[in-house]
Design brief:
Strand order of the largest sheet: 2-1-3-4-5-6-7-8
Helix content: 25-40%
CATH class of the largest domain: Alpha Beta
CATH superfamily of the largest domain: Fructose-1,6-Bisphosphatase, subunit A, domain 1
Number of helices: 9
Bound molecules: 2,5-anhydro-1,6-di-O-phosphono-D-mannitol, magnesium ion
Radius of gyration: 20 Å
Structural class: alpha+beta
């Protein structure tokens, strides 16, 4: 084990921290690391819990009340983050309003503690997404909504955990993207994917094509383009859609591809949430050499108005994002 780098060692080696702070980033990341290990363990038992020991929300055979896994994940992340005392507020997909925690903390977190929850019961990969900002309000006061309504360009760090065939933690602090795979035997994350780069050209497109006719003309034309046979441009592309954003994004990050959740007639702003789904993955995509767009502009430049605001989302290999932007621009 001497030739592997653990996540803890990596942070120390790179002396990573937020500008002007001492050790706060490593405290924060160690909270995320701990909660993700706990959640990972529980995710692995999810099938057992729901199928053998009783459905979520019911009492299990030991007479314990069961919690839904997404609520459990939310609690674990909040507990771990609160304990480290560097964060003053958390906004989560699971909570209608933000939580004010330690007034002395300088940072805020936006998170989706367990994304893709419709996939929990069917043994398909799910994930956690997080995004870290410096607060705007003065230290020592109670965090305000404005602290959370910052554009993605203000993110200090962002990452995700994928609970897949193995558990991985991937993050950026604005100096590239690194991925760590969890070794359950040793209980540590080890650096497995240093300096991740997304291929500039991709071949995979990932969309819920049930929404084809609900999408705009430009999106429909792009899908037709993706399916067209043209050996010169290596088409047709390959369609891959898991329905877990983290898993679809992670695959495309490694192999090259485009994830798209456009505006539809029933969801005019798309489905995905700007603060804790779109922006953190946009930061990672850009840091890996990719791109993230609303179809008409950079995702990270949107000035949020609401905590749970949605945005149309196109993220992945630069050439593919450029291509769909072209189709969308031409629909006008
Ligand atoms: P969730 O936060 O309720 O889990 O919804 C987000 C998920 C993403 O993980 C996924 O990409 C998308 O919703 C799938 O939506 P759809 O079922 O409409 O294709
Ligand atoms: Mg979600």
């Amino acid at each position: 084990m001497t030739d592997v780098t653990t996540l803890g060692e990596f942070i120390i080696e790179k002396q990573m921290d937020f500008p002007g702070s001492s050790g706060e980033f490593s405290r924060l990341l160690s909270a995320i690391r701990l909660a993700s290990k706990i959640v990972s363990q529980q995710v692995n038992k999810a099938g057992l819990l729901s199928n053998i020991l009783g459905a979520a929300g019911n009492e299990n055979i030991q007479g314990e009340q069961q919690q839904k896994l997404d609520v459990y994940a939310n609690d674990q992340f909040i507990k771990a983050i609160t304990k480290r005392k560097v964060v003053c507020g958390i906004t989560s997909e699971e909570n209608d309003d933000f939580l004010a925690i330690n007034n002395e903390g300088s940072y805020i977190i936006a998170m989706d503690p367990l994304d893709g929850s419709s996939n929990i019961d069917v043994n398909v990969s799910i994930g956690t997404i997080f995004s870290i900002y410096k607060r705007i309000s003065p230290v020592g006061t109670t965090v305000t909504k404005e602290d959370f309504l910052q554009p993605g360009t203000a993110q200090l760090a962002a990452g995700y955990v994928i609970y897949g065939s193995s558990t991985m933690l991937v993050y950026t602090t604005g100096n590239g993207v690194n991925g760590f795979t969890y070794d359950p035997g040793m209980g540590v994350f080890v650096l497995s994917h240093p300096d991740m780069k997304i291929p500039q050209k991709g071949k995979i497109y990932s969309m819920n094509e049930g929404n084809f006719y609900k999408s705009s003309k430009g999106v429909q034309e792009f899908i037709k383009y993706a399916q067209k046979i043209d050996p010169d441009t290596d088409r047709p592309y390959t369609g891959r859609y898991i329905g877990s954003l983290v898993a679809d994004f992670h695959r495309n990050l490694i192999k090259g591809g485009l994830y798209l959740y456009p505006a539809t007639t029933s969801s005019p702003n798309g489905k995905l949430r700007l603060l804790y789904e779109c922006n953190p993955l946009a930061f990672i995509a850009e840091q890996a050499g990719g791109k993230a767009s609303t179809g008409r502009g950079r995702i990270m430049e949107i000035m949020p108005k609401e905590l749970h605001q949605r945005a149309p989302y196109f993220v992945g290999s630069e050439d593919m994002v450029n291509k769909i932007e072209e189709f969308i621009a031409n629909e006008d």
